[in-house]
Structures are given as C-alpha cells and as structure tokens.
Fold:
Amino acid sequence: MANIQLSQVGVVIPIYTANSRLLSKKVLQLFIGGALISDQGSYVSVCALRDLNFQLSDGDRIGLIGHNGAGKSTLLRVLSGAYTPTHGQVHLQGRVGSLIDINLGIDYEATGRENIYLRCAFLGVSKEETRAMLDEIIKFSELEDFIDLPMRTYSSGMQLRLAFSVSTIIRPEILLMDEWLAIGDERFRKKTEARLAELVESTKILVIASHSRNLIMKTCNRVLWLEHGTVKMDGTPEEVCTAYFG
Amino acid sequence: MTKNTEFLIHNIKLAATLATCDVRSKYRRSMLGPFWLTINMSVIIVSIGLVFGSIFGSPMEEFLPFLAVGFILWTFIASTINDGCTAFIEAEIIIKQLPIPLFVFILRILWKNVLILSHNILILACVFLFYSKGLSVVALLSIPALLLVLLFLSWIASLCAMLGARFRDSAPIVSNLLQVLFFLTPIIWMPSSLSAHRVGFLEWNPFYHLVELIRSPLLGQAPRLTSWFVILGIALSGCLFILFVFTRKRARVVYWL
Structure:
C-alpha cells in the first residue's frame, strides 16, 4: 500500500547573492561587530511552497497544473525526498521512482553500456539485477552495436532513447513525472507510449506535472492547481481544467 | 539482511561506481590512461629529489624514498581535501533530484583518491627497487595507518563539502592553506635538517603526524605513539563534531546548492 500525506508543508528557499555567500564577509562581520549586524542573514528567501495539506493513496492519478514558478517542480522534489521541507511534515509510504530528469548522471565519455549500469545504480538497482535486464534495455533502445560506443558520439535522439529505456525499467509504487515523455520518431513513440502506459498502470500513485490539458484529462483522476506555492483548487480533472484552461 | 544494511551496501556500491567513473572518464581517450598520473608524479618527484637533495646535501638513497613516500601521500591528502570542497557542488543536479544520502559523495571522493593513490604505489616500488631498499615487517603497520588517515580525511572532507556548498570562497581558501601546510610539513625537507628547538614546533602540525603514520613504517620504522594518539584523537572528535553538524544541517545542504 502506498500513501502520501502532507501536512502544513512549506518550502522556503534561501537565495544567497554572491555577497552573502562570501565567507570573507561573514568573517568581516565578526570583526566589524555591531555595524553590520543588521545585515546578517539578510538574504532574500523565496517561499516556493506553503501550507500544503493533502493526502494521496492507492489508485490516485494526480495532475499538477499551474503557471511557471507555481511550485510544481518544488513539490515533485519534496515528494522525491530530495528536498526536506522547511516547514510541516511529509509522510511517505512506498518506493518512489522519478522520471523527472531521465538524463540525470550521464557520463558522456562512458559507453552506453557503462551508462546503463551507472543509471541503474542511481535508480537503486543492483549490478546483478542490471545484468539480468541488460539485454532487454539494449533491445528496447534499438541502439544495437552503438551500445559499446561512448555516449558523446550519440545523436540527441539516441541519447534520449537509451535514457528512456533504462529509466523506465523501474516499477515504483509512487511515480513522479514532469510532463509525459515523448521521444523518438513515430514508430519509436508508439513503443514508448506502450511502455509508459504499462508503467503508469503498475504504479499505485502517479503524480505528474503538466501544461497539457489533454494529458491531464486522459491520465489523471484528480488535479491540484498550484499558484504561488499553494493549492488554489483541488478537484476532478473536469472541474479544475475548466477553471484553469477556461 | 535488514533493510538498513542493504541500503548502506547499495550506497557504498554507488559511491564506488561513481568514483571509478571519475577516474576513468578523466583519462578515457588517452593511451596510457590513468598511468599519466603516475608518470606526472614520478617526473615531479625526481626533479624535486635532484634539486632539494643537493641543496640540503642529503644522501639520495635516504632522501629519495623519503620524498617519494611523502609526496605521494601529500598529494593524496591534499587532493582529497580539495575535492571535498566541491563534493556537493559538483553533484548538485543529482542532489536536487534524488534522495541519495550525502555521505555517498564523500565516499566517492575518498575512493577516487584511493584509486589514484594505488596507481602511484608503482613509483614507490621503482624507487625502493632502485635503491634496493627492502620492506620490513613494520611496513604492515601502514595498512591500519591508512585506514586511520582515511577516517581523519573523511571528516575534514565532509566539513569542507558543507562549507564549500554554503560559502563558495572556501575552495580557494582551503587550497591556499594546504599549499602553506605543504611547506610546513616535512615532505621535501627532512626533519633532521631542522635545528633542535624548531623540531618541537613540528609536533603541533597534525599533518606531520598524518604523513608520518604511513611514511615511517614504509621506511622501516614504527610510527611513534604520539602520532597514533594525535591522529586518532583528532579523527574521533572530528567525526563526532561532523556528525553533530550533519544531523542538524543535512537537510539544508540541498538549498545551498
């Protein structure tokens, strides 16, 4: 059973200007004493999320919508566990998998095969398990003999195909996505569609951020509309999309 | 196997994979590969050995092994600490996306530098063979010594990694300090060339003890107890300190990047 519970969650991100990042300035402040005290900790903060309260459980297919900077990506990072919220509590039960950035951690000097192992290590898949799935991954990517060439020699399409093939072998209970992944030519796209549909089907909770009305209507059964870091509207895709997209 | 140990083992493996990648990708397209590191190092050691050996008038068969061991160790120590300063900054994209524990990135730089160190052992073998200097049983002490040095470096590297992420000026400051320490530590000069009352100052330099711990057993002498205690003491209290800082600030690191 997978379960996500957010209570009073807020994320405040400090923006350090070059000035306040300078260690020398902190040291200077020590010597100057009172004069600059008011300046201490005077960095700008951005309140990326605030007062988020919601609960997700098995079968939920959540769409996140909102303008750029509304907090969608920050929320995904909180759910992935990368960001520990500065306020409130997150209770998360279930293995989390992320398709937010499938190019993460690619070593362009290494071969495609080596990158499969590297990427799998990031995903939490052991070497033995990777070895067992290696042929399937290579076959899906259709890279054939290119797999033993360095990644830097690949076209961007080939890089994406490999990244997609590796990233989608995971079967998480909670799946996080930032937009639908559509890659390759017409024929390859059909394959990816099928793979993604299967992945989404097997996952218990899906959270996907998107700007596409069609995608939200097609895949989600609940939509959160974020604005300025808070939930502006929470409801069925029909309701929220009508209000948001007009 | 419990879930926690499984998690730990997986993350240690991840760190090792990343470290191997780091060393490999640096020299991937060159023919000699990582052995360029070894070649560069030998050239430096031989040049310093010839110049300083004649300045100080030290006998070569004594000075060159001393220099080779010391210089290789110093390079290992200094580059581990320098890499520490950028350990989190360079992993920014990963840290912002995946909940990978931060110690992975510290282990990664430790392991990377151990790998490079192991290439340089070849130089030692050459130098020792050339002067037909054998290793005694005491040399085995360098193995526990290396483990202790790693423990010592792990907390310094962690501290530097946190400082480096929060204050971007830390890296140049640290590398400057290391540069000064290099000259204050007997690497290219021998303690015997100091006058008696100055030798006392050496005792206050932890990096002297750090280098001595591994160097003296390789040169056939057991390290002094003082060195063991100094390093063990600093390492343990440093680790406690960094654990305290980590538990409080770990969650903030991602926001500093």
